[in-house]
Amino acid sequence: MTTKSYIFNINELNNEEQKKFDSVYNDLKSRRQSYLEYKHGLQLKNKLDDEEEENEWRFELYRFLRARKWNTTHTIKSILEMIQWRIDNRVDLILEDQSAKYRMELYQKMAPSTYHGHTKAHLPLYIEKTGQIDVDEILNKFTNDEFIQCHIYWLEYNCQLAREHGRQFGEHIESIACIYDLNGMKMDVRKLLNPGKQCLYIDDNYYPERLGQLIVLNPPTIFPALWNLVKHFIDPVTKKKIMILKKGNETATTLLQYIDSDQLPSEYGGNCHSCATSPDCIPIHNQTNK
């Protein structure tokens, strides 16, 4: 049963937005129904709640409308493409796919990361030591398709986590916050540029407005060169959500403006005591089988 405090309220839109929302909703009604029937046929472990699914669908339309600048034609086209992409790639089953789960666990050993509580706005918080990614090991262990599959798994897990946080805090939460620590990054990360661009394409086309905030820490001297390679592929709205912090007191002070101290590892200025490994909250795995 959907909690009333985060039911989609069309009255929060202005009159013009309400008209465009209704237009998109009505135009996609039959396609939405057939997609819902498809999902029921998958016999997922977590049974679908039709009322919650309907509520999430309305928020989905709202996200796509915002991302497509309220152009109804582009929005409808984008959503139809998104639904077909999900069916073709069996995305609704990926979190129950044991092989995908195994690959994701393997990937996390090469890209040290963790989900670490939430921000003050209750967004799930993901922290990654991006500068310590073992690029060669990733390229050795994963095909390009498997790398992309890991990213889709990560996205779906984020969506699930955001929904769970919504239930926990009694409000609609549709996005997540990320901290990427670039300390130690080397130029070999350029080898991941091509699959990275494919990941950005998936983000923009199938998961719009899912990023709430991205904070980049400890940018190395090579960062401007790397940023110039990728910034042209990032949506302008997404760019506005990116904050780059240099080393020094600025980091902890700024992070604590958005994240409560007990939700932040001590190395970033917090005082987390909830992790079994704290103060080392982010596991680092040594890769020996190269």
From TrEMBL:
CDD domains: SEC14 (cd00170)
Domain of life: Eukaryota
Domain (CRAL-TRIO) ranges: 103-276
PANTHER family referenced in this protein's UniProt entry, alphabetically: CRAL-TRIO DOMAIN-CONTAINING PROTEIN YKL091C-RELATED (PTHR45657:SF1)
Name of the featured protein: CRAL-TRIO domain-containing protein
Organism encoding this protein: Adineta steineri
